[in-house]
Amino acid sequence: MTPSATATPAAQPEPVGPDGVAVVPVSVPRSLSVETVESVGSVESVGSVESVGQPTSVGQPTPTGVLSGRAQIDDLDSRILALIAERVQTAATIQAARIAEGGRRLDLKRETEIIARYRESLGRPGVTVAMAVLELCRGRV
């Protein structure tokens, strides 16, 4: 190594919690007292802050409103996934009927209409969503 070169330490992998989420170390400001923490959540053990039994990777309590919002998002996601599964089955039925009547496997005119509807409703990202949904519903060749 030349005198002007400096050694770079090897990159250390980020620590990962039991849920697979990267743990980010943070420093707690001195203004955050135990009383402040107790008013937001409960202190389960030294150095570990939990709110409604839900620790966070950064050592800060998760507000109750966030937890209930996340539960609502999880419920919505479950319903969206169920609807997508229902759409896949319906599309397979339509595709089989179209092929049985001598048609093509795909109806590109119909797909274009669907993409336009998603774009009108969701803006530019709607095109990506529509394309993903259509890809899921095209079935396997």
From TrEMBL:
<feature type="compositionally biased region" description="Low complexity">
    <location>
        <begin position="42"/>
        <end position="53"/>
    </location>
</feature>
<feature type="compositionally biased region" description="Polar residues">
    <location>
        <begin position="54"/>
        <end position="65"/>
    </location>
</feature>
<dbReference type="InterPro" id="IPR036263">
    <property type="entry name" value="Chorismate_II_sf"/>
</dbReference>
<dbReference type="InterPro" id="IPR002701">
    <property type="entry name" value="CM_II_prokaryot"/>
</dbReference>
<feature type="domain" description="Chorismate mutase">
    <location>
        <begin position="60"/>
        <end position="141"/>
    </location>
</feature>
<protein>
    <recommendedName>
        <fullName>Chorismate mutase domain-containing protein</fullName>
    </recommendedName>
</protein>
<dbReference type="InterPro" id="IPR036979">
    <property type="entry name" value="CM_dom_sf"/>
</dbReference>
<feature type="region of interest" description="Disordered">
    <location>
        <begin position="1"/>
        <end position="20"/>
    </location>
</feature>
<feature type="region of interest" description="Disordered">
    <location>
        <begin position="42"/>
        <end position="66"/>
    </location>
</feature>
<dbReference type="Pfam" id="PF01817">
    <property type="entry name" value="CM_2"/>
</dbReference>
